[in-house]
Amino acid sequence: MNRQLSNDILFSGALIIFFLPFFINASVFDAYTRFNLHHPLIMSFIKFAVLATLGEVIGLRIASGSYSVKGFGLLSRAVIWGLLGVTIKLAFVVFAAGVPVFLYKMGLESAREVMSQPFTMTKLYVALSISVAMNLIYAPLMMTLHRITDTHIIQHGGRLQCLVKPIAFGAILKDMDWHKQWHFVFKKTIPFFWIPAHTFTFLMPAEYRVLFAALLGIVLGVLLAIAGNKGGTGKQ
After folding, report:
1. 10 Å Cβ neighbour count for 16?
2. CA-to-CA distance for 175 and 101, rounded, in angstroms?
3. What is the rounded CA–CA span in Å between residue 12 and residue 193?
4. Which long-range contacts (C-beta less than 8 Å, at least 24 apart) are formed by 78-83?
5. With b meaning 16 or more CB within 10 Å and e meaning fewer, what string describes 154-172?
6. Which of 114, 123, 142, 176 reaches 20 to 30 Å from 198, CA-CA?
7. Which residue from 16, 33, 40, 152 is spatially nearest to 91, judged by alpha carbons?
8. What secondary structure letter does DSSP report for 107?
9. Are 156 and 162 in contact (CB under 8 A)?
10. Three-class SS state of 206
11. Are residues 103 and 129 in contact, defined by beta-carbon separation less than 8 angstroms?
12. Measured distance CA(82)–CA(79) in Å, rounded
C-alpha cells in the first residue's frame, strides 16, 4: 500500500469517527442543536473553522497530492475561517429576514409568512430571491476577503503570527488574479452552485438548515482552495 493511499484511508477514517456520533447518537445531535440555538455566533465560528478548513485540506490534497505541506498554515486558516463563519451567519440572518420584507413591500403580500409554511411555488420564489440577493451582494465580498487573507497567510509562511500582522490590502488586491476570481469564483461557482445550493437551504426545515449550511462549508473550502490554484506551497 503506497503512502498516499494509506493517508487517504487514515483521513477518511478520522472523518467517519468525527461525524458518526452525530448520526448514531441523538443526544449528541440534540446537544449540538441546543448549543447552536443559544450560541449561534460561537457555533458558526467553530463549524466553519472546522468544516471549511477541512474543505481546504481536501482541496490541498487534490491540488498537491498531500494533506499537509510547509507554509499551508492549518491553524491560521482555521481561525480566519471561523471569523468568516461569523460574517456568513450574520449574512444568513440579515438576508433571510430582509428579503421577504422587501418582497412584501414590492407587493408579494405572503412573502413574510410563506417561509414557515409547506412548500409552494411562492416559497420557492422567496427562497431563490434570498439566495440571489445574498450571493450577489455578500458572497463576492466574502470570497475576495478570503482570497486576501489566504494570500496574507501564505506570505507569512502559515505561521500563527500572521493573525496579528497588518494585512497589505492594497498590494494584495493589486496582484490578485482578477481574471480567475471573476471567471471561476464569481461567474461559475455563484450562479451554478451557490445560488441553487442556498435556495435549497432556505427551503429546508429550520432545524436542518444549520447542519446543511455547515456541510456546504466543506464544499466552499474545496472550491476556493482549487480556485486559488496554490496547492498550499506558498506560491501564487
Report:
1. 10
2. 40
3. 25
4. 78/49, 78/50, 78/53, 79/49, 79/160, 79/163, 80/146, 80/149, 80/150, 80/153, 80/163, 81/48, 81/49, 81/52, 81/53, 81/56, 81/217, 81/221, 82/45, 82/46, 82/48, 82/49, 83/45
5. bbbebeeebbeeeeeeeeb
6. 176
7. 40
8. T
9. yes
10. helix
11. yes
12. 5
d(CA 24, CA 1): 31
Reading the block at residue 87, the C-alpha cell is 460574517
Place of cell 472550491: 223
**pTM of the complete model:** 0.86
Please give the single-letter amino acid code of residue 9: I
What cell numbers appear for 220 in the block?
Answer: 466552499
DSSP string, 139-170: HHHHHHHHHHHHHHHHHTTT-GGGGGSPP-HH
> Which amino acid, one-letter code, is at 33?
T
- Could you tell me the end-to-end alpha-carbon distance of the chain, in angstroms, rounded to an integer? 33
